[in-house]
Amino acid sequence: MLASAQGPMDDRHGALVPIFSWDKTTRLSPMGIISPRGTMVEERDNMAAHLARRFLYMLLMLLMASVVSFTIISLPPGDYLTSYINRLKAEGGDVGEEIALALRRQYGLDSPIYVQYFKWMGKLVRGDMGRSFLYDRPVSEVIGARMGMTVLVSTATLIITYLIAVPIGVYSAIRQYSIGDYIFTVFGFGGVSVPSFLVALVLMVFAYRTFGVSIGGLLSLEYVDAPWAWPKVQDFLRHLPIPLLVIGLSGTAYLVRVMRATLLDELNKPYVQTARAKGLKESSLLLKYPIRVALNPIASTIGWALPAIFSGQIIVAVVLDLPTLGPVLYKALMQQDMFLASSTIMVTTALTFVGTLISDILLLWLDPRIRYA
Amino acid sequence: MDVRQLITRRRFLTVSASAAVALLAACQQPTVVEKIVTETVEVAKEVEKIVKETVVVEKEKVVEVAGVSTRQAPMLQERVKAGELPPLEERLPLEPLVVHPYGEIGEYGGTIRVGSDGTGLYGGDSDLYAQPQNMLRIKPDLTGAVPNVLKAWEMSDDFTEITCFMREGMKWSDGEPLTVDDVMFWYEDILLNEELNPVVPQWFRPGGEPMLCEKLDDYTFKLKFAIPTPSFVMINMAHKYGFWSRTFEPAHYLKQYHIKHNPEADDLAKDAGFDFWHQYFGNRSDPNQNIDRPNLRAMIPVKDTPEMVFLERNPYFWMVDPEGNQLPYIDKMVHNRVGDRSMLDAKVVGGQYDFCGFNTSIENYSTYADAAEQGNYQILLWKSGKGSDVMYQFNLNWNMEEGVPTSEQKPDMWREVFSDVRFRRAMSLAINRDEINEVIYFGHATPGQMTVIPASQSFKPEYAEAWADYDPDQANALLDEIGLKWDEDHKHRLWPDGTPIKIAWDIYESETPKAPITELVVEYWMNVGIEVPYKSITRDLLTQKILANEEPISLWHGDETTDVLFMSRPKFFAPIDGDEGCFGVLWGRWYNTQGEGGVEPPQEIKDLYDWLDKYLETRELEWTHKTLESQAENIWSIGTVGNAPHPLIFSNDLGNLTEDGYWVWDSLWTWPVFPEQWYFKQG
Fold first, then answer.
1. Interface check A372 vs B, CB under 8 A
2. Number of CB pairs < 8 Å for A and B?
3. Using the beta-carbon criterion (under 8 Å), do B340 and A319 form an inter-chain contact?
4. Which residue, A138, A132, A174, A158, is CA-closest to A312?
5. CB contact under 8 A, A108 and B279
6. What are all long-range contacts of A191-195, with beta carbons under 8 Å and residues at least 24 apart?
7. Neighboring chain A residues of B510 at a CB cutoff of 8 Å
8. If we measure between CA atoms, which residue out of B442, B394, B449 comes closest to residue B585?
9. Which among A104, A151, A321, A336 is the top mutation candidate for probing chain B, defined by the most B β-carbons within 10 Å of its own β-carbon?
10. How many Cβ atoms sit within 10 Å of the Cβ of residue B25?
């Protein structure tokens, strides 16, 4: 089958929705972008310039983000020491001004805020994220210890979200106003609007009452230190569904809505009708053209998943007591642990930038309209 | 002090000893039973001067299996057999502390599960099972001290010297001996080191001079004070004031991080990512952060993960039961760190903790009770040990200028009303304490004025009854008398300038049910025409506002009202310079800075400080009574209900518990009841 034979892909028809040609000779290559117009080299040069420019902007943005986050964290009255002393007091102690002074000195909080910022920045560019007051250990260690679980939970959620959302969205679009569509619509609006921490609480109580799954965490207390043998894996798998369901819920519901809406837009476009008129089988037609186009919004948001994978869902993680990075960031912010909070935010910000960049590249790769714009 | 205490103490020992004997008889084993001689010597010269307890465990017939004493946990027997540990006799001090269990001789084994929202190795309830070990311990009735790490102490007749006797042969958790050198290291190289302690904390400089610490021999040291300091025993030795749970520091371990003993300490610190040696030293010496630091607790941390700390019994623990079995009975502890405090309640209800007290609240009692069966736990109600669970103070320093004596301050409308004793009495009379008791505490607390707890030696019923009836008519009459007129709708009373009385203030919620009680109090006060809308804010913010004298009203829970800490510092009965009350922050500052800062108070308030100082120097009840009379007369603090119950959660499998405890900072919560003798009933 020749590319030119398939109307919408042919530039000469001026169609707005060009699709890559799918015959074997011009298959899309991950190494570069092959287009009927430019050469690969030309494209790559453009791309490199574009990327370099983006990278520079990113650095600038990061610098700004660092100042903003550091300033905002130190804006509330007091500093980590005020929080710390108050915590000591909450446990009943009496900490006088003198002790506070000595502590402030020991923690290096006696210098003005900009000095603290430059100290932290100086270390950060050398890859040292500073020391967490709260955990009294290097920030990298605090983050590192929680990275495994965080990435595991977030990635699993992400995959499940896409696996569920995309088929449902497609179904809802092609069977618009069917009973199934209504059911999923109700589910979708519910998922978007009900706060996920509430769902978390309800599910947790339900799981405890019915299945005896211990409340909170990803493992029962007795398995936390056990080697990863079968019983521990079982215990882990028993705990996993709730976080996956809860964290995935709003994302899934949202994606279903997006998928349905964009696909509905595409379904009525002339190229679909043309393809249908040419006698293409409905299922392969859908898969080959409109669905692929409808994936655009999803590709453009995939980059956001990166920071989310890193920090996890904060409130849900707190409610479910997950050993991920979310609760750490929450605590750091509450107690003004500046270096931990700022460094975590910096990493999240950096990942957001990288994620956006990835999204853009993905879009360029997916959609020539953007490439030529 | 009096004979009553001694009798109580003797009876306590006798009763528990006979219980132990009865138990021994009940479970007579065919094997040899160790012979124990317990000899309690108490010299009632002048009480609190000498309390000496000598216990000799005769080792003539040590119970042994294959050469290993069975008076220790099986897990330790294994390690002794394998040659990893020296035998029990070498690990215990010559005179171990003998603890008489509340119920029976326990069984070894089990893991106690606790949780906290902290980030350290110990925290919340884990700290309360494996308590940091102070020199002395607080008596269960909170009226005195008993030996702990020190086997005895002796206060000189003029209250300026305390001789302390340590236990020979006592060891750190790494097996190194604990001697006076550890105390001297703390005194010379930590307390007096200017880099670690720029200023000696006031607890260690009574009369303005840093106290002296002198080594007499390897196991005896002497503390000397510039002025009589009888209060040091209770406040700093039995309680942890000033020491911050760091009463003893392991010199053998910490010297390597100290610049005086290791000139390369700064390099060590830089390698570890710190700027100065004193920062690294602070980290290394903190038992809460450094897993390698030897300590004296019952449980020592062995593994630290983000969500869990694993602790194991300290093989060198220096307490035994009356049969000579080494404590603790429990083998291990897991300390579960949760992301948020509210998670702890959920996990309690899910039966995931064997012990929880630090974050439980009486408001959730019925929730705990509903889930008790499925969660396999019981709820014990301890006394809150607070003169008043929530008490209110009006700011008598409102709108004052710092540095100007009280008598020369510019007049202020609000301050004049707050300072009028009739106003404070009216506010107290307007509160329906019985209703608070019924609504919040199911009738289990005691309505009354803010004062000391009934178990205190200074307690008198009239202090608790002063202006504590519910009498809105009298309250209205008093307010009319002051001249606070009603507005036209008879809703608000009016300030002298004709504006409606509406006083906005802030609270911080913790420990006791502050918001629910305040909700009621706001309503009661509204009924007599005084509107006091409040907002709940963070403690950080509240601290700032109170210290800046920006709160017209404040509240707190009335702790430091037991004989342990009552009048150990200005707090609710003499104005404090802190965030726990706004009765007279600027006066408190004047007192704290010896007259350099703050506002010079009137004679009436100076008297309060004077009595406090005198009590600290003499410990004579004359001064506590004067103070309490002043409170009953002037209602500096307006109390609501006191002696309230606090719910504690214990697994049904735990034994040797008591219902007779005080859950309060004064008692250090579980400190008087020896949690080391809790045990898991097997099978």
1. no
2. 125
3. yes
4. A158
5. yes
6. A191/A249, A191/A250, A191/A252, A191/A253, A191/A254, A192/A250, A192/A253, A192/A254, A192/A257, A194/A249
7. 90
8. B394
9. A321
10. 9
Of the CA atoms within 13 Å of residue B582, those in its CB half-sphere come to: 26
A253-299 pLDDT, tens per residue? Answer: 888 988 999 999 988 889 898 988 988 888 888 888 888 888 888 88
Q: Name chain A contacts of B282, Cβ cutoff 8 Å.
A: 106
For residue A7, pLDDT beyond 80: no
**Residue B439 near residue B362, CB atoms below 8 Å:** no
Angle between helices B603-618 and B621-634 (to 10 degrees): 150
3-state secondary structure B482-520: HCCCECCCCCCEECCCCCECECCEEECCCCCCHHHHHHH
DSSP state of A358: H
- pLDDT, tens only, B542-559: 888 898 899 999 999 998
CB contact under 8 A, B244 and A327: no
* Record: contact A221-B336, CB cut-off 8 A: yes
CA dist., res. A90 & res. B122, Å (int): 16
B566 neighbourhood in chain A, CB within 8 Å: none
Here the ipTM equals 0.74
B161 with B153: CB under 8 angstroms? no
Q: Which of A215, A322, A339 is best to mutate for the B interface (most B CBs within 10 A)?
A: A215
Instruction: Name every chain B residue with its beta carbon within 8 A of the beta carbon of A225.
Output: 303, 305, 308, 310, 334
Q: What is the pLDDT of residue A75?
A: 79
B303 token code pair: 């593994």
Could you list the beta-strand ranges (E) of A94-195.
Answer: 131-132, 137-138
The whole-angstrom separation of Cα A304 and Cα A133 is 29
State which residue of chain A sits closest to B127, comparing Cα positions: A91
Contact B574, B605 (CB under 8 A): yes
CB A323 within 8 A of CB B307: yes
Q: Determine the straight-line distance between the first and last CA of chain A, rounded to whole angstroms.
A: 28
Place of tokens 């894996």: A233
Please give the Cα distance from A319 to A198 (Å, whole number). 9
CA distance A303 to chain B (A): 27
Structure tokens at A9: 């892909």
Q: What is the distance in angstroms between the Cα of B643 and the nearest Cα belonging to chain A?
A: 18
B284, B257 in Cβ contact below 8 A?
yes
Residue B81 in tokens: 């057999």
The 8 Å CB, 24+ separation contacts for B57-64 are B57/B96, B57/B98, B57/B320, B57/B324, B58/B34, B59/B34, B59/B89, B60/B35, B61/B32, B61/B34, B61/B35, B62/B34, B62/B89, B63/B31, B63/B32, B63/B34
- Dump pLDDT digits (tens) for A147-206: 888 888 888 888 888 899 999 999 999 999 999 999 999 988 888 888 888 888 888 888
Q: Sign (positive/negative) of CA torsion B402, B405, B407, B408? A: negative
Query: What is the CB-side half-sphere exposure of residue B409 using CA atoms within 13 A?
Result: 23
What CA–CA distances, in Å, run from B29 to B60, B103, B109, B327? Answer: 18, 19, 20, 20
Structural tokens at position B455? 């178990």
Query: pLDDT averaged over chain B?
Result: 88
* Surface of B (332-371) touching A: CB under 8 A: 334, 336, 338-340, 343, 346-347, 349-350, 352
Closest-CA residue of B relative to A204 is B346
Which of A93, A101, A146 lies at the smallest CB-CB distance from B306? A146
Instruction: Yes or no: say if B428 and B467 are a contact pair by the CB < 8 Å rule.
Output: yes
**Encoding tokens for residue B574?**
């003499």
The answer to whether A283 contacts chain B (CB < 8 Å) is: no
B102's tokens: 């509340």
Residue A149 CB contacts under 8 Å (≥ 6 apart), including other chains: A218, A322, A323, A324
